[in-house]
Structures are given as C-alpha cells and as structure tokens.
Amino acid sequence: MKNVIVIVGAGPAGLMSAIAAAQNYPAAEVVVCEQLSRPGAKLLATGGGKCNLTNILPPDELAKAFGRQWRFMLPALQLMPPQQLREWLMLRGIATVVSDGFHVFPESESARDVLEALLAECHRLKVNIRCQTVVSKILIEHNQICGVIANNEKLSASRVIIATGGRSYPSLGATGSGYLLATQAGHQIIKTFPALSGLQTQEKWPCSCAGIAVENAAITIDIPKYRREIWRGELLFTHHGISGPPIINASRQVSALLEKYPLIPLKINLIADYDLERWLKIFDKWQRDHGVRMVKNLLAEMFPARLAEQLSFISGNENYIAARFPAAARRKLAMHLTALPLNIKSAEPWDKAMITRGGVALKSVDAVTLESRIVPGLHFAGEVLDLDGPCGGYNLQWAFSSGYLAGNLSNNLPT
Ligand SMILES: Cc1cc2nc3c(=O)[nH]c(=O)nc-3n(C[C@H](O)[C@H](O)[C@H](O)COP(=O)(O)OP(=O)(O)OC[C@H]3O[C@@H](n4cnc5c(N)ncnc54)[C@H](O)[C@@H]3O)c2cc1C
Description:
Layout: E1 4-8, H1 12-24, E2 29-33, H2 41-45, E3 54-55, H3 59-64, H4 74-79, H5 82-91, E4 96-97, E5 103-106, H6 111-124, E6 128-130, E7 135-141, E8 144-150, E9 153-156, E10 159-162, H7 177-184, E11 189-195, E12 199-201, E13 213-221, E14 231-237, E15 241-243, H8 245-257, E16 264-269, H9 276-289, H10 295-299, H11 305-314, H12 327-338, E17 340-347, E18 355-360, E19 378-380, H13 394-406
Helix pairs in contact: 1-6, 1-13, 9-12
The site of flavin-adenine dinucleotide (FAD) has 40 residues, from helix 1, helix 2, helix 7 and helix 13.
C-alpha cells in the first residue's frame, strides 16, 4: 500500500515540510490539507507584503532571540540556517537582499514570489495541495498515527505533520485548531497570548497623537526584574495606545506579564540618546536664547506639534515661557521626556497580533526530529509549537527550518 504523508496547513512551515517529505520519500504520496481557499495566505501578508523572510544571524544567535527554550530550535536551524534558506530560494529563482545590513527580503520585495517558488516546487514534486480541506481530528491506533479526518472523511496516513500556525490573524487561517489536534494526541498546550502587537494604554492622551511617530525612542518595562531590557526604534502613537517595532517586540513580554498584573508600567525615553541632564541644559539654552517664547512651542521644534502640546500639558507647563520656567517644572518635563510613564492595560487582540506566544509544549516533542514523544508518526512544525521570536525575519526562518526538518520524518520511512 502507498505511504501517505499528510501535512495539516499550507503556510510556510507546511509547504516546506511537504517539499522535504516529497524529496526524501519519492514513493510516498504527500497531501497538504489547507482549510482556506488558497495556500500561504499569511505568508502573503508578511513584511507588509514584502516578506522579511529571515535575517543574517547565525543559528544560535537567531535561536537565542526566542528566549529560554532556544536550544530546542538548533537542530532545525542548523539543518536549514538563514544562508541556506537564501541559497535554496536562489536556486528556485528568488534572489534575496539585505538592504539594511540585517533583514533579508526577496529582491523583488514580493511575498507572492516566495509563495510561488514554494508552490512551484510542490508542483514539481507532485505534492497534492487540497484547499478548503479542514482537518478536524487526527486518528491514532495502537498508539501510532494512522490518519486524519479531513472534511469529515477519513484520510489514512503513516505520518502526519501539524503545521497549522497559531491563533493570530484568524482571517488568515489561524484558528488555533492545531492545538486541539495536538491535545487529542495527549500533548500539553502552553497558554497562548497575542504577541508582536501594539499595546493599549490606560492613559487616554496617546489617542490624540494617533499617527505620530517618534523616530528613536527607548522603551523599558518599569518593573525591577525587567528594567534591564531596552527596546529601541520608532514609536508610533495609535488610537488605543502605542505601537511601532520596539513596542511590538516588547509586547512578547508585556502580554505574558498582563496575566499576572492588571497594568504593566512602561517608561519611554522619547529621544534614546538624551538623558535628564541633557534636557536641563537645553532648557537653560532656551532661557538664554529664546526667553520670551513658550516652552511648548520650543518643544514643537523637536517633536510633532500635537505631541509637544500633550507633553507640555501632562507635565503641567503649557503656560510657561522659557525665561520663567521654574526648576521643578523643568525637572518634571525632563522626566516626562526621558521616562514618559504609560500603563499598559492590554495587548491588541488576536486579529492585530502578528504571532502567538505559547502553543504545543516542547517537552513532548523531540527537537532532533520534531516528532511527538507521545504518538510516533506525528510531527510538528512552525508557529504551532511553543516558540515565538521578535520582529525581523525570525518567525519565518523558524517556520521554514522546522518545516524542512519535520519533512525528514525522522529519516525512517521506507523510501
Ligand atoms: C501581518 C503579519 C506579518 C508578518 N510578517 C512577518 C515577517 O515579515 N517576517 C517574519 O518572520 N514573520 C512575520 N510574521 C509571522 C509569520 O507570518 C508566521 O510566524 C508564519 O506564517 C508561521 O508559519 P506557519 O506555517 O507555522 O503558520 P501559518 O502561516 O499560520 O500557516 C498555517 C496554515 O494552516 C492552515 N490551517 C490551520 N488549521 C488548519 C486545519 N485544521 N486544517 C487545515 N488547515 C489548517 C491555516 O489556514 C494556514 O494557512 C507575520 C505575521 C503576520 C500576521
């Protein structure tokens, strides 16, 4: 009887698993079940459609950015490190570039080109991609995987790879159904949170600055144990709070902390290189050179006017001129500029979070094969596992590398 390998999910992890499985086991039939009407819906949305597919870090540094479970990722990342992913794509007609010295994009800046290359390879290897096919159950007999229920019909298989992604952006297929499938096999699911998202503040004033960006901010979580980590970059004010790359990266920590505390205090230095003393010197200079001008108008030469006004208002100095700017008020404004306090009440919800924190617990998955330690023949790849990285090509690299490793199927299927 023909060996059938079923892959659940046609995202980057699922498509790469399918390619590796079809290459390694040419005699087997590789079937990818995708619930949406088209494969790779989320991949198309990555990097604003430009697809930041990886970065230039070596495997161990890339893995460390995922946090304390990073060692689990090494076998997959060593099998297909960033450089090899780029070469793999190059051989399939997709040149990649590192225009800022770190992030890797396809030269065409088109996520569609990356998806097309994966689909062309699937086609060449005769992978059967079945869209609008929902896998609702995995079938296990004598503690061995034996198939799935897809669109209410039994599909027998000697191997099943779950590559269903997480819960973020349900409109792009992330329904969390992979967790139910894993639970059926006895796997534990680590509690999931929306991560890589904007943050909603308790303070209302940021919404009046919605759309304003501050180029070079530095953000810390104002809780003693967490103060050492600093996220830098462009801060964006939104209708509900704050966003932008440093906030999106900080949200991985903040989402988890919100489980413990109702509010998470942040401190924001609005110009990362300026400290309190530097601001006090600037105020002295304003007093000397521009004594009759309003402080808020002088501030508006350094920040967008709406933000300058808000900062002046919350520091209580909106009526001062530079010559009559009392020492206590100066200090207060300098404090707000270097350690602006904002309290986070929630992360943006699942439909705005780029990834999922939490997922299938790693302790019951073999890092070397990505096979279940509970049910032989069941494998996992991509975001469904309890691993999440920051912005910057980390998560797609993990999807591709883990897919490639899972598609090896422990190297013990008959070929
Ligand atoms: C807007 C946005 C932008 C992003 N940009 C970047 C970026 O530039 N760089 C980066 O590294 N990462 C980025 N990410 C994160 C990255 O897209 C994901 O980490 C990655 O897609 C995960 O790949 P995956 O294959 O594990 O899951 P997914 O891409 O989510 O694919 C899973 C697939 O499984 C299907 N599926 C789920 N359940 C079932 C079921 N029961 N039956 C059948 N099919 C099922 C889904 O429909 C889906 O197509 C971004 C995410 C978002 C939302």
